[in-house]
UniProtKB/TrEMBL annotation, chain A:
Entry keyword Iron: no
Segments passing through the bilayer: 32-51, 63-87, 133-155, 175-198
Keywords in alphabetical order: Membrane, Transmembrane, Transmembrane helix
PANTHER family, per database record: LYSINE EXPORTER LYSO (PTHR35804)
GO molecular function: L-lysine efflux transmembrane transporter activity
Lineage: Bacteria, Pseudomonadati, Bacteroidota, Bacteroidia, Marinilabiliales
GO CC, one annotated term: plasma membrane
Name of the protein described by the UniProt record: Membrane protein
InterPro entries (UniProt xref): LysO
Keyword Iron: no
TrEMBL record, chain B:
Name under which the protein is recorded: DUF340 domain-containing protein
InterPro entries: LysO
Organism: Prolixibacter bellariivorans
Record keywords: Membrane, Transmembrane, Transmembrane helix
GO molecular function: L-lysine efflux transmembrane transporter activity
Highest taxon listed in the record's lineage: Bacteria
Transmembrane segments: 31-48, 60-83
Amino acid sequence: MKGSIIILSFFALGLILGVTDTLPDFLRETDFSMYALYILMFLVGIGIGADRKSWKVIRTINVKIFLVPLGVMVGTAIGVTIVSLFLPNLTIREAMAVGAGYGYYSLSSIFITQMHGETLGVMALLSNIIREVATLLLTPLFVKYFGKLAGIMSGGATAMDTTLPIITRYSGKDYAIISLFSGIVLTILVPVIITFILHTSL
Amino acid sequence: MITVLLLMVAGILAGWWLGKFPLVMKINDKLISWAIYVLLFLLGVGVGTNKMVIQSLDSIGLQALLLTIGALAGSIAMGWIIYRAFFHLNNN
């Protein structure tokens, strides 16, 4: 929660400086964002590779558990596709790209901005922040009415960190490993799936 | 964008080895945070200077909310099915 507020503040600061036209010239003349993204992805990779705990979690898992992140992917794709049928300005491909953030709003919005433009990038930022916040607020209800996987499904990629405590509290400790696993798999796959969805030559 | 994915794979391989040094990983976490701050700041700048996006911010927000509702409904429905079929019965 604290993390998303800080990130939103940086976004808001950029937004205000952009709207009020008070930017230093060098920011307007050069586009650093692609290079920053290269650096970010390399660093994110280092973080994944170095995370011994995650690799151990993945190794101790049986096949059944793969159904959980797979269910998030399929369920999200179906859900956003149905919604997109009612949104005339949005193609199914665009809707699926936004959904494929699975709550990982920082990376998904950056990726989608680079590949498809700012409008969809902002939509991904907002949609995936809402996903995280909704999971934090509604997991008790979700678990009560839709079973112990509901919080993990709702959390998507965030089920490995920000929403893990609330999920563990309402689904029980038995589900912590499943939650971690699903979150880790989805986090790694976010950039891959978004690239796959938006890549023009595919 | 393939370049970006390859960089991530290179990072994973490097991280496998770098994971032995806790200090390096601490710095890595800090750098990730700042890279994200910079990129989100730049996204803010891009949006702020883009009149078309600014004018349709409310409609973008509404669409984002509707997409999230769809994504959550779909995911939770799938979770309910998977839970009933594969997890719940085993516990009984």
